[in-house]
Design goal:
Blueprint (H helix, E strand, L loop, with lengths): L8 E4 L5 H12 L3 E6 L3 H13 L3 E6 L5 H11 L4 E4 L14 H28 L3 E6 L3 H4 L5 H21 L4 E6 L16 H7 L10 H12 L10 E2 L9
Parallel strand pairs: 1-2, 1-4, 2-3, 4-5, 5-6, 6-7
Helix pairs in contact: 1-8, 3-4, 4-6
Length: 247
């Protein structure tokens, strides 16, 4: 059975670069019309729209700060209903716990967890009106494992997993599936070995496959969860992580 999203509309947050970009490309390749959310990355978002169009797909960029409730609602009003929602936007912070400020905590939790709540709250009514759909939230293996020096990030991603399970239970009767993807280390600008501490690099490359993932490998999992191939999946956490976490 092939993977087809023909006739469906998707929104991917934080889609101008990295994992989000790879997800937008995969969804468009499968036939979905894709909204590419970004914040301050208009050039990269436009380039992605052009790349999708050149491949015969359809996409449109939309700028919004997903940690801002009013901005998210404006985005939802413009987009309308979607069949697939991928909450990917995120930030990461490497800092000792006792040096972590309230501003650090609020920033990471705001983008990595609060934004998932805001976007789901704004987009779910439209999804329900379309008769159901698929919500895919990008978490992290660190939400399962924890990691010293990453307390806000780990807390946020663990929260994303718990929120996903709650959504799955609440909206399953209305034909909305909610699942999470918990990647291991991925080769993106946000997770760059050259910008991380030696201790971080040693831990990340100690996983069984001993390499970083390509963003396309995460996008393949997202595409599966967005499609009918995963029609009996809800409340699940899939881990394209190279073996970093084996729950």
């Amino acid at each position: 059975m092939g993977v087809s999203l023909q006739g469906r509309t998707a929104l991917v947050t934080g889609a101008a670069t990295g994992i989000g970009r790879a997800c937008a490309l995969r969804l468009a390749e499968a036939g979905a019309v894709v909204w590419i959310n970004h914040l301050g990355q208009a050039e990269a978002a436009a380039a992605l729209v052009q790349a999708i169009a050149a491949a015969g797909g359809h996409a449109q960029a939309i700028e919004a700060d997903v940690a801002d409730a009013a901005a998210v609602q404006r985005m939802a009003d413009r987009v309308g209903g979607v069949d697939v929602l991928v909450n990917n936007a995120g930030v990461i912070l490497e800092k000792p716990f006792l040096e972590t400020t309230e501003a650090d905590w609020d920033r990471v939790l705001g983008v990595d967890l609060r934004a998932v709540f805001l976007v789901c709250r704004a987009l779910l009514p439209g999804m329900l009106a379309r008769g159901g759909g698929s919500v895919v939230n990008i978490a992290s293996d660190l939400g399962l494992l924890g990691r010293e020096g990453y307390a806000p990030y780990c807390a946020a991603k663990a929260g994303v997993i718990a929120l996903t399970k709650s959504l799955a239970r609440e909206f399953a009767p209305q034909r909305v599936r909610a699942n999470a993807v918990a990647p291991g280390p991925v080769a993106t600008a946000m997770v760059s070995l050259e910008h991380m501490s030696a201790e971080w690099v040693e831990k990340e490359l100690a996983i069984p496959q001993h390499r970083l993932a390509d963003p396309a490998e995460i996008a393949d999992t997202v595409l599966f969860l967005a499609s009918d191939l995963s029609r009996f999946y809800t409340g699940q956490v899939l881990g394209p992580n190279g073996g970093s976490a084996m729950p």
